[in-house]
């Protein structure tokens, strides 16, 4: 299998970067699936002649590779707008900040529920050894003892991996929203 090209070196990737398109937007323009664009960019599929022909009008506007590196050297830094850019719409920035705050509150509530579930399971696990039916109770009522053992085991079970993953993803999203809220607060000043 041939090695895949470096990320961003394929023609579709260069066109997307230059024109500020997402894969799905380029796929829509080309009349193909976003998965096909993704595979072409990753080097798993080849660019067909029909797609090359469809990309050709856009490719004509691309600067030569040497000019791209010079252009990126003079590109604005992360928080610097190009000269001549109009001031932002403060009301729109404030609206987005408030939307982010609402999302952060919802995430905080969901995290609290998941954290409480994990904490309760840990508490059950700590108490489990003394709660399990004794041999005397097991011999007296084996059905009840079996049920109780199973029930206690389920209570003490830690969060399943998919729930733990959800918790970590929510924490990441929470951090991202906090950063966005802070940046929007600064941009609105």
Kindly state the number of beta strands: 0
Return residue spans where pLDDT drops below 50 for at least 5 consecutive residues. Answer: 1-7
Number of domains: 2
Strand content: under 5%
Order of helices and strands: HHHHHHHHH
Fold and architecture overview:
This is XRE family transcriptional regulator. With 189 residues, the chain is mostly helical. It is 71% helix and 0% strand. The N terminus is likely disordered.
In short:
This is XRE family transcriptional regulator. The protein is an all-alpha fold and 189 residues long. The protein has 9 helices and no strands.
Structural topology:
Elements: H1 11-19, H2 23-30, H3 34-42, H4 49-59, H5 65-73, H6 90-131, H7 135-140, H8 142-155, H9 161-187
Which key terms come to mind for this protein?
mainly alpha, 434 Repressor (Amino-terminal Domain), 9 helices, elongated, Lambda_DNA-bd_dom_sf
């Amino acid at each position: 299998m041939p090695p895949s090209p470096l990320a961003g070196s394929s023609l579709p990737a260069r066109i997307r970067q230059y024109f500020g398109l997402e894969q799905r937007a380029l796929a829509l323009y080309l009349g193909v699936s976003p998965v096909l664009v993704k595979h072409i960019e990753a080097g798993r599929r080849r660019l067909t002649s029909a797609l090359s022909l469809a990309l050709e009008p856009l490719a004509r506007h691309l600067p030569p590779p040497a000019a791209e590196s010079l252009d990126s050297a003079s590109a604005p830094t992360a928080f610097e707008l190009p000269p001549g850019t109009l001031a932002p719409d403060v009301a729109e920035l404030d609206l987005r900040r408030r939307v982010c705050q609402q999302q952060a509150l919802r995430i905080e509530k969901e995290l609290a529920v998941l954290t409480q579930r994990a904490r309760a399971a840990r508490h059950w696990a700590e108490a489990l050894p003394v709660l399990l039916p004794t041999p005397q109770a097991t011999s007296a009522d084996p059905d009840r003892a079996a049920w109780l053992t199973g029930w206690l085991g389920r209570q003490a079970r830690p969060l399943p991996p998919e729930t733990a993953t959800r918790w970590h993803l929510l924490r990441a999203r929470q951090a991202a929203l906090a950063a966005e809220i802070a940046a929007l607060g600064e941009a609105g000043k």
